[in-house]
Amino acid sequence: MSKPKERSDSESRLGATAKFAYDRMTVERFRNAFPRARWNEEQRSWFVPGKTAGKRIAKWLARESENLDLYADAKGHDAYAFDPVSSQYLQIEEDIQIRTPYSRDVVAHLRSIPWARWDDEMRAWRVPFRSYEALRRSWPDIEAAARASEPEERKRRKEAEKHTPKYARAKLRYDERRRRRYPVPAGSLPPIGQAVMTCSYGVVIVAEVAGEFAEPDDIKRFYPHAAADPRDFVWVRWRPASLAELVATWPAREEPNAFEKGRGWWRPDLDELREARSQARSLERKKQRRNTPSSETARGTAREGTR
Hints:
The protein has about 300 residues and is an alpha+beta fold. The protein has helices at about 25-35, 55-65, 70-80, 105-110, 130-150, 150-160, 165-180, 215-220, 245-250, 260-265, 270-290, 295-305; strands spanning about 5, 10-20, 40, 45-50, 90, 95-100, 115-120, 125, 180-185, 195-200, 200-215, 235-240, 265. Strand 1 (about 5) and strand 2 form a beta hairpin. The termini are far apart.
């Protein structure tokens, strides 16, 4: 825990940072105790403003430590030994490690498990034994969602859906997204080159104003938030925001009002930025893995070179 100065828009503020293992319930308790706390993406820590922030954080962390059952992990290990969960997605080490194909349902279930956290280096969810009972109760749903996300199962469902009306609508939406256009009121244009939140595409960077009026039929089909608006709409061109741009974006302190929602774009808040940063970070990791030869390929290349 340290006491740095963090800059706001116009001045620096005194405060302290707090770091602790991610757990949804712990984060909720922390934000309730420190409503002015802000997440610092670069330092991967919470910043709490105020001269006495360091002392208040230390007291809160001490209370959290006292409330933790010292024997909870041993009890959870005994519970596992008595009634174990066996699955191809689960591995037992010093804690419980879970590796599944990506699934939003799996992530949602695991985030609800107390003390569960994602280990980026191991590429696995790690659950302490103290949370085994909660994991065991949710495991049937987790495993079902994981099996449904296997590549073979996804391919089977995709083939079955190809000739359905739902698939045709999804293809039209996909084609529209590839155009990277978005309708905004002609008299309320978003800032060029800055990150904005949209109703349809999340946080994006507005690249330019096309100057072309949006057809009402296109708005009704793809952008229902603006379908009943009598104003003239024009197309703006957008592009995905990079991780660096999202980290540099200062979040809005208040939720968007009715006017901002009605025009279809607004300054993103912290939760919206956090989700967008997480998605951007995942995309960057995927690009790095695609550009980095696998260990097997590297070894094969080495063997070829010695022949």
